[in-house]
UniProtKB/TrEMBL annotation:
<feature type="region of interest" description="Disordered">
    <location>
        <begin position="161"/>
        <end position="181"/>
    </location>
</feature>
<dbReference type="InterPro" id="IPR005302">
    <property type="entry name" value="MoCF_Sase_C"/>
</dbReference>
<dbReference type="Pfam" id="PF03473">
    <property type="entry name" value="MOSC"/>
</dbReference>
<dbReference type="InterPro" id="IPR052716">
    <property type="entry name" value="MOSC_domain"/>
</dbReference>
<feature type="compositionally biased region" description="Pro residues">
    <location>
        <begin position="171"/>
        <end position="181"/>
    </location>
</feature>
<protein>
    <submittedName>
        <fullName>MOSC domain-containing protein</fullName>
    </submittedName>
</protein>
<feature type="domain" description="MOSC">
    <location>
        <begin position="20"/>
        <end position="169"/>
    </location>
</feature>
<dbReference type="InterPro" id="IPR011037">
    <property type="entry name" value="Pyrv_Knase-like_insert_dom_sf"/>
</dbReference>
Amino acid sequence: MTGAHVDTVAASAAHTFSKQPVPAIELVAGIGVSGDAHAGETVKHRSRVARDPSQPNLRQVHLIHGELLDALTARGFDVAPAALGENLTSRGIDLLALSTGTVLLLGTAAAVEVTGLRNPCRQLDAYRSGLMQAVLDRDAEGRLLRLAGVMAVVRTGGTVRPGDAIEARPPDGPYRPLEPV
């Protein structure tokens, strides 16, 4: 398949590290993935809930580019789609290069707005030793690069399936680099 598209979709009703690939996910505007433990208007990630449960949920949907999984596999890590907790694995789109506020049209109806970068945590090393370091890098100026995908909020609900096209619509105004959320 050519062009940017959805490779895998996944969800988990429990707060598990990995999610289960499914034939389709239903995105709900302002909430996230129907039936997923991280769905909701306010934060659902346990560490964030402990700090302030009233924070808005900027992490309703987690997206990882499948090319990262390929690179990790080439380095000896056994990492399949959905294993790192993502709801959507993409192909053919550089998620990390998007501007904050980019809207991703998914399939025929759904749309998510990219809010920022996933901030890798120690759970990665519990899953596969050395994996956290493998999803971190440094740029030419020495700044930390987080490679473990992006987070988004659902703007328009709809069903998303593997094979659905992905179209990126940048926000109005200047490019805003992604920051951890």
